[in-house]
Specification:
- This protein is of the alpha/beta class.
- Among the domains are: 102 residues, 3-Layer(aba) Sandwich (Rossmann fold); 146 residues, 2-Layer Sandwich (Heat Shock Protein 90).
- Helices cover 55% and strands 18% of the residues.
- The protein is rod-shaped.
- It starts with 10 loop residues before the first strand and ends with a strand.
Length: 394
């Protein structure tokens, strides 16, 4: 009984200038279930490969116009998923090595045995299937590695973001504790200092009332002036730690900024400072005490003016979004040294010999009262920018 042929599937292109080879090979392969294409030269074969994408090409080594080796290299370059078995009538090892180096998957000597041809084709197609699967697995591996790398980067970014948020939260807690401590101490200090201070003021005024010596009167006036200065420092100390009486009403923040800038007009003119208003959008009115908001900008503008004694630019940028009113106050001064930035809102911290170091503490206390935020957004040799965010809905 004749041996039953094993049925295969796949597309095979035969390129050979000998019609007998084309016909014989076609019959053998079609009988085994392959879809077969034929071409008598390499250029025609390239067109068929481009149109039909066969898995395998049986290519004759000796052809006119374009030889088999040249055609092999072109197929491997243009159609890397199409594998090639070479037909050759020359059985030298040198040719075999050259063909394999050029990309041939196998070579068959003419004349060939039908079963050997079928076995060779089946073997090459199996190898092709394995190699293409491996190639696909490698691509998937690269994609997975790229995804893992992206996930790692995203995770690192999230960890960094959470760490920074935690640091900011810890810093805010520390600031709140400092203000609370300041409030406790300042209330006690103000009481303890004001009692003897009031007595001193009263006795000095009594001395002054019966004094006629002009020189001594001048000394007394200086004493009273210093008493007033001490009392002013106590008031600032209390303002930095404890909210005084306030009156809540609808306040347009752009008007508060404008009126505060107007108060500083003499100093701005004296120091030849240019004022830039960048009101990108005017926010709606918020519920606040106008005098408290004015204190915020009074302290920030005063700091900026002190940083620019010999001209500069004071810029106020105003904007808002769905949640916050955002105000940026910038100057073109020499900037805050990086090591000082963490302490600028601390009570009594100042680099100004004439300052008390309470101005920015007052600003921080007021901003926190309105559940807002304030930070040094930028500070370098080109100047400093403070950013204030106040909730729209309080």
């Amino acid at each position: 009984m004749a041996k039953e042929l094993k049925q295969q599937s796949g597309r095979v292109l035969i390129i050979d200038d000998e019609k007998v080879i084309l016909d014989l090979t076609s019959i053998i392969l079609k009988n085994r279930g392959y879809t077969v294409f034929t071409a008598v030269d390499a250029p025609s074969g390239f067109e068929i490969i481009d149109a039909s994408q066969p898995e395998l090409v049986l290519l004759d080594y000796m052809m006119p116009d374009m030889d088999g080796l040249t055609a092999l290299k072109e197929i491997r370059r243009r159609f890397p998923d199409t594998y090639v078995i070479m037909f050759t009538g020359k059985g030298s090892e040198e040719i075999a090595v050259e063909l394999m180096k050029a990309g041939a998957s196998d070579y068959i000597l003419k004349p060939f045995n039908n079963q050997d041809l079928a076995d060779r084709i089946e073997n090459v197609l199996k190898i092709r299937g394995i190699e293409l699967k491996n190639r696909e697995l490698l691509r998937e591996r690269e994609m997975l590695l790229a995804e893992i790398e992206a996930w790692n980067l995203e995770l690192e970014a999230r960890v960094q973001e959470k760490s920074e948020a935690l640091q900011r939260a810890q810093a805010e807690i520390v600031q709140s504790e400092k203000l609370a401590t300041l409030g406790y101490l300042s209330a006690g200090m103000a009481h303890e200092i004001r009692n003897p201070l009031n007595s001193i003021s009263l006795f000095v005024q009594l001395i002054k009332s019966g004094m006629e010596d002009l020189e001594k009167l001048e000394y007394v006036e200086k004493i009273l002036k210093e008493i007033d200065r001490i009392d002013g420092i106590l008031r600032k100390l209390l303002d930095a730690s404890k909210r005084p009486k306030f009156e809540i009403m609808d306040v347009m923040i752009d008007r508060v900024i404008d009126s505060t800038l107007e108060i500083f007009s003499p100093q701005i003119e004296l120091h030849k400072i240019k004022v830039e208003r960048d009101y990108r959008s005017i926010p709606p009115a918020i519920k606040a005490d106008p005098s408290e908001l004015e204190q915020i900008f009074t302290n920030l503008f005063l700091n900026s003016i002190n940083e620019m004694p010999l001209a500069g630019t004071l810029k106020v940028q105003l904007n808002y979004d769905a949640k916050y009113i955002v105000v940026r106050v910038s100057d073109t001064g020499k900037g805050i040294p990086p090591e000082n930035i963490p302490y600028v809102f601390d009570p009594f911290f100042t680099t100004n010999s004439r300052g008390t170091g309470l101005g920015l503490s007052v600003v921080l206390r007021i901003v926190k009262n309105y559940k807002g935020k304030i930070e040094v957004e930028k500070s370098d040799a080109s100047g400093t920018t403070f950013c204030i965010k106040l909730p729209l809905n309080g």
